[in-house]
Amino acid sequence: MTKLLWELGEGELPRLHPRLAMFDVDGTLRGRNGEISAAVRGAIASLQRSGCKVGLATGRPLFSAGQIIRSLRLDAPS
């Protein structure tokens, strides 16, 4: 019998290979201090190395979002 994803035990979870990841900026990519941490930068780089496209989903103006896109070298349309 097939199990639903939430019925699987910890050792049974499938390894996911996302093709697209979109992130909000404030409170997600940027911490309370307004900076993007080394851990976040590393996680984004790891996603990109695995073949996942990474972009922003934000209501920020393009000039503000563009700075973040360039600094993180995001490769998905935002």
Explain the overall architecture:
The protein is α+β, with helices and mostly antiparallel strands and 78 residues long. It has helices spanning 38-49, 62-72, and strands at 20-23, 53-56. The longest helix is centred in the middle third of the chain and has 12 residues, at 38-49. The radius of gyration is 15 Å and the shape is elongated.
The major beta sheet can be summarized as: 2 strands, parallel
Q: Helix/strand-derived class?
A: alpha+beta
Shape: elongated
**Count of runs of 4 or more consecutive helical residues:** 2
Q: Mean pLDDT, rounded to whole units?
A: 84
Percent of residues in β-strands: 5-15%
C-alpha Rg, in Å? Answer: 15 Å
Order of helices and strands: EHEH
Q: What is the CA-CA span between the terminal residues?
A: 41 Å
Number of strands: 2
